[in-house]
Amino acid sequence: MAGRPTSQDPKLLRRLLRAKDRMDAASHEEWPVERLATVSGVSEAHFARSFKEAFGVPPHRYLLTRRIERAKALLRDTDQPIIDVAFQTGWNSLGTFGRIFRDITGESPSQLRARERTAHHQLTMVPHCFVSAAHRPNLKMAVSEKRRKDAGDNGSPPDDTEVS
Amino acid sequence: MSQFVGVSGIYVRDQDEALSFYVDKLGFTVHTDARNGDYRWLTVQCPEQPTFQLGLFKPQPPTVDEATAETLDEVVAKGAMPPLVLLVDDCRAAFEHFRRSGVEFTQEPIERYGSVDASFRDPSGNGWKLIQAR
What we know:
The complex is a heterodimer of chains A (164) and B (134). Chain A has 164 residues and is mainly alpha-helical. Chain A has helices spanning 10-25, 33-40, 44-55, 59-77, 82-88, 94-105, 109-118, 128-134, 143-150.
């Protein structure tokens, strides 16, 4: 996998970026491949592969990182109950949210909230969206894979559902 | 001694397209449009900020080689270039105006942190924040 990846047409990339932008703008919504492919004007078969090639992660894993990022921001910046944060960021169940949140960030939503509350922030001069990007989880493998790894391959059978 | 930034540039995939976007849609004015062979030095500016020029540059030989030019076009199209900020006195009004002109917004105006901000992209993929000056 070394070297420069195959080049992609800038016009195609620009349209793939549009799908990424749309997920950014509404990560709480459902984004089946069909919907994303329509935004980008490419076939469903072509979309997922092209997106991963362009942005390094499959579209749904990207969506997951955005949801966690938003959830982290809401936990940090608001007093909303965790269940509200979960529903607001696109999960249908508190259990799934808590599990995936812990898998990705290494702590539970309430632990993160408690820790962030005590931390001293010096980012007030940076435009909000850039701070947000800096806090985006850097998810390099599938959540199920991360979970397996953390469990030392002894845990319960993997749940491959990344995004409900 | 005093110093200030006079020109800073962004990469665009097509200078005619970019010129039309920044001038016709965003209301910038052309400062310099000079050609030398295939090379075109193109800068625009906000009418109210005459000391600063935004360069709209196409990555191309001889400035960079063909392969690098392709890579740069791709990087811009992926939205990976650094953020740009356009300050306005009324974000919502600017949003309505630009959207009617056909600007592609990626985030509608949101009021937060004592200001209002929105986001849009140029045709090449450069991302702008539209922020209401405090």
